[in-house]
Amino acid sequence: MKESVVRPVSILSTRGLIPAVVHGPCEPAGRANEPPGVVLCCHGLLSAKDSFKFVGMAEHLSQKGLWAVRFDFTGCGENTSRFGASLMETRLDDLRCVVAWARSTPGPWGGEAVLGLFGSSLGGFLSYAFAGLFPGVVRALTLWAAPACLLEIATAAKPRPLFLERAWPFELPLGTPNPVDGFPPVPNVLIVHGTGDELVPWHHAVDYYRCAAEEKQLMLLEGVDHRLSDPEARAMASKATVSWFVRKLMARG
């Protein structure tokens, strides 16, 4: 197996710099002069771009001829940017800046790109929210263990424990948008969720499936937890995710 091209980058936002890492295929995929597929990887509330989940997914995608960008949201990993008026405003602005960078810069892929979003937990909600707020910008989504209603999860977690302070300062409100059924239907969504999820009950996945437009797929993993920590389950989810993005971002007839 060939190693992918890996390059750190810094993406300018309205509040600082967003640290990111780009993974690219060693050999070009698809037809000549065809925009390449680029997947932006959105981590959860307390995760970061360097987690095993996102490094592994970026490698899997690049091995199949896609580009992948993993980045740190404000307050996580290496991102020391200022927060905005709310948690949701801050993270949506981060994602908006990364999407704008991926669309406007020639970047390592050399020009215009067809975008996909891979989001885990809160990153999944943000991915769906962005696609709903900006129709047509993103070609396909994959959501892992994503909450469909943030208020339900935030209320269940009160009072917030101290270890959340860096990623979500106590004085910072949750903000909007919320919940997922307030957005226009988003097409081309793969939804992956474990029925044993202890943080986000699996009915949230059903809510996404109900709200999304065609084509959509729902993959429920029996007894699997929020982090998809079971190796076999995570391998199944990864395989389905990569196949989804290959079909949606590369097979463009």
- Span between termini: 28 Å
Largest sheet: 8 strands, mixed
Number of helices: 6
Roughly what fraction of the amino acids lie in strands? Answer: 15-25%
Indicate the structural class.
Answer: alpha/beta
What is the percent of helical residues? Answer: 25-40%
> How many strands appear in the DSSP assignment?
8
Rg, Å, rounded: 17 Å
Run of helices and strands: EEEHEHEHEHEHEH
Mean pLDDT score, rounded? Answer: 93
- Give the uncertain stretches in residue-range form: none
Q: If strands are numbered along the chain, what order do they take across the biggest sheet? A: 1-2-4-3-5-6-7-8
Q: Overall 3D geometry?
A: globular
Give an overview in words.
The chain has helices at residues 52-63, 87-104, 122-133, 150-156, 203-211, 231-249, and strands spanning 5-12, 17-24, 37-42, 67-71, 114-120, 140-144, 189-194, 216-221. With 253 residues, the chain is an alpha/beta fold. The chain has an eight-stranded mixed β-sheet, with helices on both faces. Helix 2 packs across helix 3. The model has no long low-confidence stretch (mean pLDDT 93).
Topology:
Layout: E1 5-12, E2 17-24, E3 37-42, H1 52-63, E4 67-71, H2 87-104, E5 114-120, H3 122-133, E6 140-144, H4 150-156, E7 189-194, H5 203-211, E8 216-221, H6 231-249
Produce a short descriptive summary.
This protein is α/β, with parallel strands linked by helices. It is built from 6 helices and 8 strands, in the order βββαβαβαβαβαβα. Helix 2 (87-104) crosses helix 3.
